[in-house]
């Protein structure tokens, strides 16, 4: 008797991992809740009064987001939402902890607002889930997205400079609120890039000459990259915002590379970034002082002013050591200005130590890699490019701000995604995760069962 | 497009890896040096977050910890009779660091000494708040106050040191003008700090330990010891072959006597009594530079390693100098310089029959719950001279007080020996000289050795003599020490 020559494969609903997500979400809500209680016990010897509200609020946000995913993106990646919720929850705890640092000058309570912004962010997340039926719809708005990005980037340059903004012109002040349009651009610009590169990638990739093992693009194909390069330089010059400039140019080069599969674009990108940076840093005192601060973080200001913020941030990290001082028991308020936003990593490093920072970086790495995994799995080029762009921009942002605060690279003002105080940042990042989840939902969704398949598919194996 | 996406993934991981390597370096390798950085306030915040130990004088603390409602620091240092004890305690400031005992004894005062490790661990387990240990000084508050008020009531600048010759315990350590360390202890005392540092009279200078003066005629005690030990003089009452004025060897420069007394061929005993420069310069020349320097070293000169445990500035007797310079050095001029503590050590060694005890300021270190951690045992610093020589010099010093320049230091019922000094200084000796008095007193089983130096910028030149200005202060200190 011969071996069975045929096997039967019945299409089944692939596991959608929604229950995994739910379990992880419970942990993502509980961990910050314990951290919150711990901070209160350490600082006031009692469990914080807002414990129940905070726990219920975060639990509700997480539950609503989860239900939205279940309903509108059932096959989406199960890791991204819990990681985002965990980061956001921990961020709230640290902002609350710094609210309680009475030594911090001009310390306005920010945790309350941050919680409201988190709610808005989750609402936006649910909105994207429900309203964006398919991410490919975004492709229609390629050029509108380009225009919107341009406008958003340009607005702050026309706003009057404010002393309280410390050099960088990246805010729009409306009444009591301030909005950082650069944050929204982080989503809008990748949409434009993805749509644009979708259309032009063949021309950019194929029409080229070979020189020294590199494919040299034709002169006219250099147009787009030069345009983005000029735009980022203009941001740098008029808004003195090195971080945003670096972020957009970097994201564009990554997307260009992925779209064309040509290493030469990376070489060009690096050369142009270097050239632009060299040209601008020579002229901009703001940029130069950032570099000086980075090279000599422990040099004290004359007149007994102590070391600068990077120095204070390094002191905080050093004081944390391997295991940290414990929540609420550090002195990171010494960092001063922006301790809750750009420099929140200093507090985390001091109170949770090296162990906490390593875990935090792993969480960010995991989120980014899940985004890139989505790009790999996506079946349409637009989805691939958009996922790469969003994940890449997110990774660059984490690196730029964490690198600045830890003294790895010169400091440029940026928010640490999900953790730093700042409404624009929080809602943008929730929207970003929502779009990535939508792309992953499409990518992971099993192929629809053909209507005609009345009987199981016959697979004929070799006999 | 998947190949570049995989490469982008690797790139993103490299970024995260770079951050991880960096924080490992900062929090692992650099952490301890960052903690020690002087601009890092965390150390100070920790140090002032619990009560520091006290510095004890005569059974009572002269320091205190004041709870302040500061944002940064919980406590600040305070001082009782700060100006009197500042040369002993030093200061402990939230901004300007610390000095003297506050600095040297910081491990005990802060409670971080390794010898307190077990106690600290127990306290941690039992939940007791951290507290620093105490430092008990050897200072006798009566001697200290007597000296300080003698200076201030006379309106003089200067310094005084009193030692117990038999142990080396420092009974008094005064420097005038002084300052109250409380005024610079807080975090907002910049103006006080600036004023103190700009003050021309240098109130923060510890004259007793950190300032050297030309010892002038008081150095003749060391020269006498060298002369007797080396056989240059065998009988203190025998006539010497000393011209007056004495022409410095190898030169035509005459060395006169200030006093105008008869110094021609007088005995060494008489020469010390009326303070003849000519006799001692000639004796110093006959002893020679090498042996003079060796004698000075036995009394503690030329040593920069003395700690009590506070560091003491080196007193100087030149080595390798020519004969005329050595002759001048022998009478406490030229480059010979001494701290007031050094001259008190000279008197103490003579009073203690030639044995120089190591001076010390800290009698005991103890933990917050009064367990004694360490008690200082008196140790011999050196055998400065033989008992015979020491006793002969004692005879000469008593003669000075009985019949010579030191009569204002007489104390009824006590044996007092002393030596005055008037040291010239400045370009061509134009500045007002320093007045010295170096002495010892014995009564019953009590002994004390004292050195007093008075800097005087206001008095007339003639008035400045060790006898007129310094001896009365020394007398008050000796009386206080003897319990009179």
Radius of gyration of chain A: 24 Å
Main β sheet profile of chain B = 5 strands, mixed
Shape descriptor of chain B reads elongated
Shape of chain A, please?
A: globular
Order of helices and strands of chain A: EHHHHHEEHEEHHHHEEHHHHE
Strand order of the largest sheet of chain A: 1-8
Low-confidence stretches of chain B: none
In order across it, which strands form the biggest sheet of chain B? 2-1-7-13-14
Strand content of chain B: 15-25%
Which fold does the CATH topology of the domain at 209-362 and 377-482 in chain B refer to?
Beta-lactamase
Number of helices of chain A: 14
Low-confidence residue ranges of chain A: none
CATH superfamily of the domain at 209-362 and 377-482 in chain B: DD-peptidase/beta-lactamase superfamily
Q: How many strands, which pairing sense, and closed or not: the largest β-sheet of chain A? A: 2 strands, antiparallel
**Structure class of chain B:** alpha+beta
Give the number of DSSP strands of chain A. 8
- Domains of chain A (count): 1
Largest interface: A-B, 53 and 38 residues
Instruction: Provide the β-strand percentage band of chain A.
Output: 5-15%
The N- to C-terminal Cα distance of chain B equals 101 Å
What's the quick description here?
The complex is a heterodimer of chains A (463) and B (484). Chain A is mostly helical.
């Amino acid at each position: 008797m011969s071996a069975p020559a045929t096997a039967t494969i019945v299409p089944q609903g692939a596991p959608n991992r929604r229950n995994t997500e739910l379990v992880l979400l419970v942990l993502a809500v509980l961990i910050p809740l314990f951290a919150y209680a711990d901070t209160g016990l350490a600082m006031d010897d009692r469990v914080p009064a807002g414990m129940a509200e905070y726990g219920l609020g975060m639990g509700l946000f997480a539950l609503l987001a989860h239900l939205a995913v279940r309903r509108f993106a059932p096959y989406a990646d199960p890791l991204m939402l819990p990681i985002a919720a965990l980061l956001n929850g921990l961020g709230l705890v640290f902002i609350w902890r710094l609210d309680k640092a009475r030594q911090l000058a001009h310390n306005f309570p920010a945790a309350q607002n941050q919680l409201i912004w988190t709610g808005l962010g989750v609402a936006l997340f649910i909105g994207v889930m429900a309203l964006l039926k398919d991410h490919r719809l975004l492709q229609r708005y390629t050029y509108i997205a380009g225009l919107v990005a341009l406008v958003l980037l340009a607005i702050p340059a026309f706003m009057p400079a404010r002393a309280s903004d410390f050099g960088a012109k990246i805010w729009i002040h409306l009444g009591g609120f301030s909005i950082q349009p650069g944050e929204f651009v982080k989503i809008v610009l990748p949409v434009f890039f993805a749509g644009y590169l979708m259309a032009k990638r063949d021309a950019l990739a194929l029409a080229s000459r070979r020189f020294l093992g590199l494919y040299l693009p034709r002169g006219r194909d250099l147009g787009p990259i030069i345009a983005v390069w000029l735009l980022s330089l203009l941001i740098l010059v008029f808004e003195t915002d090195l971080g945003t400039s670096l972020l957009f140019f970097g994201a564009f080069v990554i997307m260009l590379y992925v779209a064309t599969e040509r290493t030469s674009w990376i070489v060009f990108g690096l050369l142009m970034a270097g050239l632009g940076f060299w040209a601008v840093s020579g002229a901009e005192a703001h940029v130069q002082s950032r570099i000086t601060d980075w090279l000599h973080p422990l040099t004290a200001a004359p007149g007994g002013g102590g070391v600068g913020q990077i120095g204070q941030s390094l002191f905080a990290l050093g004081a944390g050591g391997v295991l940290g001082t414990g929540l609420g028991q550090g002195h990171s308020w010494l960092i001063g200005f922006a301790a809750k936003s750009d420099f929140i990593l200093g507090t985390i490093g001091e109170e949770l130590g090296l162990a906490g920072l390593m875990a935090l970086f792993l969480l960010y790495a995991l989120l980014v890699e899940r985004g890139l995994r989505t790009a790999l799995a996506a079946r349409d080029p637009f989805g691939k490019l958009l996922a790469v762009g969003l994940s890449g921009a997110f990774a660059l942002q984490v690196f730029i701000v964490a690198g600045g605060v830890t003294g790895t690279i010169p400091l440029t003002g940026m928010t640490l995604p999900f953790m730093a105080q700042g409404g624009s940042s929080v809602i943008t990042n929730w929207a970003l995760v929502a779009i990535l989840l939508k792309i992953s939902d499409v990518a992971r969704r099993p192929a629809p069962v053909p209507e005609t398949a009345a009987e199981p598919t016959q697979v004929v194996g070799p006999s | 497009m998947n190949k570049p996406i995989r490469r982008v993934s690797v790139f993103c991981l490299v970024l995260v890896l770079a951050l991880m390597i960096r924080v490992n370096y900062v929090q692992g390798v650099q952490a301890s040096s960052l903690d020690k950085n002087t601009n890092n306030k965390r150390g100070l915040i920790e140090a002032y977050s619990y009560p520091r130990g006290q510095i004890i004088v005569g059974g009572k603390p002269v320091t205190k910890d004041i709870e302040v409602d500061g944002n940064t620091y919980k406590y600040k240092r305070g001082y009782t009779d700060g100006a009197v004890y500042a040369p002993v305690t030093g200061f402990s400031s939230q901004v300007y660091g610390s000095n003297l005992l506050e600095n040297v004894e910081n491990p005990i005062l802060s409670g971080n000494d390794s010898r307190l490790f077990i106690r600290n661990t127990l306290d941690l387990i039992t939940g007791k708040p951290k507290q620093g240990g105490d430092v008990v000084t050897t200072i006798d508050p009566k001697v200290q106050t007597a000296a300080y008020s003698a200076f201030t009531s006379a309106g003089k600048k200067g310094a005084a040191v009193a030692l117990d010759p038999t142990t080396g315990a420092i009974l008094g350590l005064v420097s005038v003008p002084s300052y109250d360390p409380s005024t610079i202890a807080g975090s907002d005392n910049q103006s006080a700090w600036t004023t103190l540092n700009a003050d021309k009279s240098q109130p923060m200078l510890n004259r007793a330990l950190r300032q050297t003066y030309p010892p002038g005629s008081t150095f003749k005690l060391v020269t006498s010891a060298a002369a007797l030990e080396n056989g240059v003089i065998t009988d203190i009452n025998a006539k010497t072959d000393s011209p007056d004025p004495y022409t410095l060897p190898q030169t035509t420069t005459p060395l006169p006597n200030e006093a105008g007394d008869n110094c021609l061929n007088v005995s060494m005993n008489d020469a010390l009594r009326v303070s003849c420069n000519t006799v001692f310069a000639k004796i110093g020349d006959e002893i020679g530079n090498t042996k003079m320097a060796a004698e000075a070293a036995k009394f503690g000169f030329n040593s920069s390693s003395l700690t009590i445990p506070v560091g003491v500035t080196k007193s100087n007797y030149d080595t390798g100098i020519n004969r005329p310079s050595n002759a001048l050095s022998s009478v406490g001029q030229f480059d010979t310089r001494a701290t007031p503590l050094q001259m008190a050590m000279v008197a103490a060694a003579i009073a203690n029959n030639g044995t120089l005890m190591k001076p010390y300021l800290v009698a005991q270190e103890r933990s917050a719950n009064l367990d004694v951690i360490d008690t200082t045992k008196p140790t011999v610093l050196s055998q400065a001279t033989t008992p015979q020589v020491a006793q002969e010099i004692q005879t000469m010093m008593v003669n000075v007080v009985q019949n010579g320049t030191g009569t204002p230091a007489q104390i009824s019922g006590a044996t007092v020996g002393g030596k005055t000094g008037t040291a010239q200084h400045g370009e061509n000796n134009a500045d007002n000289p320093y007045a010295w008095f170096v002495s010892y007193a014995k009564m019953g089983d009590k002994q004390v050795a004292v050195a007093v130096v008075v800097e005087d910028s206001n008095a007339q030149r003639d008035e400045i003599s060790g006898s007129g200005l310094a001896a009365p202060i020394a007398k008050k200190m000796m009386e206080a020490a003897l319990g009179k």
